[in-house]
Amino acid sequence: MIKATNVSKRYSKKLALNAVNLSIPKGSVYGLLGPNGAGKTSFIRIMNQITAPDEGHVYFGDRALQPGDIARIGYLPEERGLYKKMKVGEQVLYLARLKGLSTTEAKARAKKWFVRLEMADFWEKKVEDLSKGMAQKVQFVTTVLHEPELLIFDEPFTGFDPINTNLIKREILRLSEEGATVIFSTHRMESVEEICDHIGLINNGQVMVEGPLLDIRKRYQNGTYLFVVKEAIEHWGGGTVLQESKHHTGNSYTVKFEDYPGVMVGELAVKGTLVAFEEVLPSVQDIFIEIVENGIKLAPHE
Asked: 107: part of which helix (H) or strand (E)?
């Protein structure tokens, strides 16, 4: 859906993007990650044609990004932008008209979304009278109402309680299942693991790692395994116990090994004490911290 080739962007003496190459698959939920100041917002602004790259190209589908493509994009920025004195319904219809919808079609779609997001009684309220979370719901509706092919959400859960966060997560996944491509930028790594199938991590204006999320987690595997056994174990054949706990199925141990613990698994299986065994892949947060703190950059297929 989106392909960037050697995209660079400079602001005065600051190189915000340095020969960035990204490929965002059609139909994916793509996590665009990075610390503050990494270059994520600069790239999002280029996709939305708010700014243009100094070098390189961005492709939308099979051709270069064009001005008319903005109608095919829905963008929820981190800095919200509703008119506080307008009534909610008027605000939604106004922004929908800017995206090319008729008043009749916009109103019909908006009413359905208001029911879906449990905000049917907001229509006549002024934006300034809404809580931060409720105003966020309104802006979410204005982002998706014209049914764009590409949705860009920058910190979409800001201001939401856990209930509404889960509600919006479900709607994002539903939109993806219905064919939309979603770019999702956030600092909440647990949300990335829940809804993203691809990620790209930018640091200091460079792409440090990109690809399917599961593949990246496997590439960062560090020899950590989870054992569930019927009896307590004291010696792990050179492995280091990172965590242990007891539960109804037995004792649980998270153990780190230098090599694959095939001998240990075999011994426990022969004894009949092994209940379960699996590799523990690093979390997105672990990978994020390692890349940002240590400056590790993986080649696309390393």
From this structure: helix 103-116
